[in-house]
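Newbie here. two chains, one complex. Structure please?
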Amino acid sequence: GAVVSQHPSWVICKSGTSVKIECRSLDFQATTMFWYRQFPKQSLMLMATSNEGSKATYEQGVEKDKFLINHASLTLSTLTVTSAHPEDSSFYICSQQTGVGNTEAFFGQGTRLTVV
Amino acid sequence: GQNIDQPTEMTATEGAIVQINCTYQTSGFNGLFWYQQHAGEAPTFLSYNVLDGLEEKGRFSSFLSRSKGYSYLLLKELQMKDSASYLCAVRGASGGSYIPTFGRGTSLIVHP
């Protein structure tokens, strides 16, 4: 199956700074990557869909100017949390999903972001 | 929209059998997934159902009833390492989207 590598696995940053999270597809050219956020004991909430070479599609309620997504190549998508605040502290996960038949989602390792 | 409901937490004894239920309401249906997620890690795929019935895979089985909007994940011969959160995810058919919606997960605690 597809292998998705996400980096960093955890990061602590000061309030007001920006953090970049990378998600790489290691054995599959991913034209689409999905970004999720998960708060403790909550479900995975889709934040945005990243499309190679075009603008990302954001879910309702997600600020596109705060969560910048770049998908410049078929193997790399990045999520930048700008001007981070403590309420942005969460677990961020990227995923590849082809959506065909019984193909499941392949997830990155996730990034634990703590804003202090 | 989609609504997925599963119990928040369950406990079971090592070696026993446990059934985790999931009910859903969706606009269209195009498959149901179960994932296992250990704390601080990404979810890993367990099973997929799109037709009614039981799918068995080793110690894990998953059942689906589309008419009832119901699924369960059955774990047999429980091991301590099975302590994790189990996520039910449903792929609807709204607008051609193939992105599944995840439930909140059921935290399973296996004790000796």
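Moderator note: Residues 39 and 45 of chain A are 9 Å apart (CA to CA). The interface with chain B takes residues 6, 34, 41-46, 49, 91, 93, 97-100, 102, 104-105, 107-110, 112 of chain A (CB under 8 Å). Thread marked as resolved.
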